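**User:** Here is a favour to ask of a fellow structure person. Please take any protein you like and set down a full record of it. No explanation is needed for now; the record alone will do.

**Assistant:**
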Amino acid sequence: MEDKRIYFFGEGSKEMRAALGGKGAGLAEMTRIGLPVPPGFTITTRACREYYLQGELTQDLLADLQEAISKLEAATGKRFGDPENPLLLSVRSGAEYSMPGMMDTILNLGLSGAVVEGLANLTSERFALDCYRRYIEKFSEIVLQVPHAVFSDTMEDLLFQEKIKCDRDFSAPALRKLITQDHTSDGFWQLGGKFRHRGLFYAQPFYW
C-alpha cells in the first residue's frame, strides 16, 4: 500500500502526512472516522519525486490518474468533461508542513467551453460563466504562469465600459466578453497541468 501513487481519502490516515501532505492526511483521517467528506483522492509525494527526477509525468501516473477519475465518476454519478452532467474538481497543492502563501487552489477544474454551457443549463448562465471566468484566471495564473495584471487590467477596462463598480455586477453578456478563448477543453490535461505546477495535490468534486 505504501507504494501507491494515489490514495482515495478513505484509504489513508493522519499518520500518513509524509506521503499525503497535511491536508491530504487530514481529509483521510476525517473520512476514516466517519465524517461526511465528499469523495476525493490525493497524489502522493512519491509521484512528486518521480516527476522531479524524470522531468515529466510518467505513463504509470497518468494511468493511475485516469483510474482515479473513473472511480470518482462512479462514486459521484457524474462524468469528467460531460456537458450534461459534469464532474468538476477542487484541486489544491499540499505539503507535509504547510506554510502561508504556499498552497494554491483551483476550483471548478474540468470546465471548458462546452461544459460551461451544460453547467448553465443546470444552474444559470451568469453563474456558469462567472465560475468559468474565475477558473480560467486561476488556472492561467497558477499553472500557465500568466501575470495577474493581464486579468486585472482587462477586468478594470470592462468595469469602466459597463459602468459598474465590481465584478459581482457583471451581466452574463459582459462575462462572455471576458472569456475570449478556451485554453483547453481537455479536463484530464488540466489535471496534469496542475500536477506539473505543484507536484502534490488532493482533488475532490463539487456538487450542483
